[in-house]
Write a structure and sequence with these properties.
This protein is mostly helical and 89 residues long. It is 75% helix and 0% strand. It has 4 helices and no strands.
């Protein structure tokens, strides 16, 4: 499995202020970005996997909504997470 509990814990400690705060927008965005990159690599070799393609589009939409939420609430945290994850907009 590509996403273990230890890997998730690493995201939560690296991108969030509190280890137990797994619902922080920064940690969720980082987790979604990791999953998006994994699914993108999978789709490069399996072009006709339409179920994965739909899941990828849903994840991108979720990440976009979280980024919009963070942008409305605190622009400095938004800019910081964009810079850390190298997400261009």
């Amino acid at each position: 499995m590509y996403l273990t509990a230890e890997k998730k814990q690493e995201f939560f400690t690296q991108y969030s202020n509190d280890v137990n705060n797994t619902g922080a927008p920064e940690s969720q965005i980082a987790l979604f970005t990791f999953r998006i990159s994994h699914l993108t690599n999978h789709l490069r070799s399996n072009r006709k996997d339409f179920g994965t393609q739909k899941a990828l589009l849903k994840l991108v939409g979720k990440r976009r909504r979280l980024l919009d939420y963070l942008k409305d609430r605190d622009i400095s945290r938004y800019r910081e997470i964009i810079k850390k994850l190298h997400i261009r907009k």
